[in-house]
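Good morning C.,

I know you're traveling, so I'll keep this short. The sequence:
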Amino acid sequence: MNDIIIAGIGGQGNILLSRLVCQLFMNRGFDVKSAENIGMSQRGGSVVSYIRVGDDVGPIVPDGKADILIGLEMSEAARNVNKVNKDSVIVLNNRFVRPKNSDLKKQQILKFFEENFSKLNVINAHDIAFELNMPKAENITMLALICKEGIFPFSKEEILRALEQVLTPKMYEMNKILVEKIYERY
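The tokens, ready to paste straight into the viewer:
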């Protein structure tokens, strides 16, 4: 997984998730480049992070070259479909926020991804984060589940180390409990 796209809306923790993924790869000694397109993120607008792992690469993932698309929100994942190809891994959070002035439906997006991508994974991070009493931690929930399922090759211990490196001590302790519960229950 050398070229990664994380797509979501403002307030979902896209940038933090991007920083954590970068930290995970850097902890294994990889050269990592990243960039964000944050638009109107403070108003629930589109947020896209690009992560590229490897030497001699720029920070923006070229169209059709993403190895994995992580959709923190379904319509934003669909909006960034130009970055993936038929062999890309698609990981969707089962969360849908209908874009303004659109009649797009959640089932339309799911059907599109099901029909066009054989490596589709739908994760219910929204509900799991609520169930574990951490509703603002869908991003960390997604990361833990993606790693636990083997989509990313990182262990629970590696996730906890990256969290400790990136977060404040108080935030680390809260998210450590979340990751441990995910590995125990799901």
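Safe travels,
E.
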